[in-house]
Amino acid sequence: MLYFIGLGLNKDQLTFEALNALKTCDKIYLESYTSNYADNNIEKLETQIKKKFVKIYRAESEQGFSKIIKEAKTKNIAFCVFGNITSATTHSSIINEAKDNKVKIELIPGISIFSVIPMLIGLEEYRFGRTVSIVKQEKNYSPTSFFDYILQNKELGLHTICLLDIKIYKQSKYFMQPYEATIRLLEIAKEKNINTKDWKIFVVSGACSKKENLTLTNLKDLSQKETKYNFPSSLVICAKLTYNEKENRNKIKNV
Amino acid sequence: MLYFIGLGLNKDQLTFEALNALKTCDKIYLESYTSNYADNNIEKLETQIKKKFVKIYRAESEQGFSKIIKEAKTKNIAFCVFGNITSATTHSSIINEAKDNKVKIELIPGISIFSVIPMLIGLEEYRFGRTVSIVKQEKNYSPTSFFDYILQNKELGLHTICLLDIKIYKQSKYFMQPYEATIRLLEIAKEKNINTKDWKIFVVSGACSKKENLTLTNLKDLSQKETKYNFPSSLVICAKLTYNEKENRNKIKNV
């Protein structure tokens, strides 16, 4: 059996169904290249459940998950992911590979950043459009489609959750900071001749950790100071707020 | 202290942080008018945590939450919700009322139907547009805006999660069935002269329960038979599927 388990955003967000599955497992893999706990306390979870996690990095996953799938033919194996399990495309690949190999699978959801963000800043879940990822510009890779989607959402009166680029390798880590994301957004806005002066932006960082921080700001202010926010940081670009949302924003948390 | 706690979609989806909060509470309220467990097993959870839930219905909540808030000034009180905590507007009202009364609050997220649906049917979370609610047509209440939003999403190449109307009172319960929702969609399509012949639709019912069922169908077929699906039932109206999504759809679950 191969369990796909969402761990949530901190160790206490583990669900009982996740714990019960982990207890039966002979080996537990932890996907360690698309996310992490904000508190970096996976060791505390290991102590709590009295099992060790074997970390998997991007290079290994790109070579295929054949080893894990082979093990899961005869043993109970867990493939754990921070947050929820289906946000990254590689996760669906391993699920499909397992199915191709007739390995029995079970999907166990975890608390998702997508559920937590609207809750923290008091915006209505029905008023979010498609989510985008803001990606680091590289030599031959300079997408701007995320900007178009933000505009599209704004025109429809919808908020946009923007996830920020992450590149975690065994030897190096890169987490895009909100000010970098904002500089990129301002560059594209200039190219496209879009006025972003009135855009209201939330920075949600370290969600569900002791370092949690919510900041309401705008593109220009955010871009001008190299403030380091805690992982994970996301931006929410707001559409026009409803009366309720304004009330909530002022009251749910003191932003 | 007033805890707002998401219970998830079945009793084993309770998180440790929810359990730890419940343990400290003198009284536990359960919002019982916008949702429920598919398995109806809140009693099992009561046994497990050795505490009773006091159920709250719509009428009581509309009279205001003043009693609960007054209690929370001197005691630890929990306000529990099935799934996640911020999907219903009334929930933000009580949060705001607590804040106005200077009652300390803590928000504890739960596994959300919004995270579970894309996972179960293998559609990419980035390709969902705004969520809609399909509401029962009544004498002086006949909204069609949800249909426009579905069209909008479709035009942008995005899937739509459609929640179905629920009316739970102390003495009566109404859960809109997928075939009723579909009949309403077909009526509006006819009025607006929209061809829905090619629309692919998932019915996701009893998510995360033993009665879980996933059906891939179309509007016409779904509307023609009064099939009763298990609670909670949602529809997903698909945009054009990507290659990956087709692969996933065939493999994640045998729909």
SSE inventory with pairings:
The structure is a homodimer of 255-residue chains.
Chain A: E1 2-6, H1 16-24, E2 27-31, H2 42-49, E3 53-56, H3 58-62, H4 66-74, E4 77-81, H5 89-100, E5 105-108, H6 113-121, E6 132-134, H7 145-155, E7 160-164, E8 166-168, E9 173-175, H8 178-192, E10 201-205, E11 213-217, H9 219-223, E12 233-237, H10 243-251
Parallel strand pairs in A: 1-4, 1-5, 2-3, 2-4, 6-7
Antiparallel strand pairs in A: 7-12, 8-9, 10-11, 10-12
Essential attributes:
homodimer; 255 residues; alpha/beta; Cobalt-precorrin-4 Transmethylase, domain 1; Methyltransferase, Cobalt-precorrin-4 Transmethylase, Domain 2; 2 domains; five-stranded mixed beta sheet; 12 strands; 20% strand
In a few lines, what is going on in this structure?
By secondary structure, chain A is of the alpha/beta class. Helices cover 36% and strands 20% of the residues of chain A.
Q: Which fold name fills CATH's third level, the topology of the largest domain in chain A?
A: Methyltransferase, Cobalt-precorrin-4 Transmethylase, Domain 2
Biggest beta-sheet profile of chain A:
5 strands, parallel
SS strand fraction of chain A: 15-25%
Question: Largest interface: which pair?
Answer: A-B, 51 and 51 residues
Order of helices and strands of chain A: EHEHEHHEHEHEHEEEHEEHEH
Give me the CATH superfamily of the largest domain in chain A: Tetrapyrrole methylase, C-terminal domain
Strands of the biggest beta sheet of chain A: in what spatial order? 3-2-4-1-5
For the terminal residues of chain A, how far apart are their CA atoms? 45 Å
The CATH first-level class of the largest domain in chain A comes to: Alpha Beta
Number of separate domains of chain A: 2
Shape of chain A: globular
Number of helical regions of chain A:
10
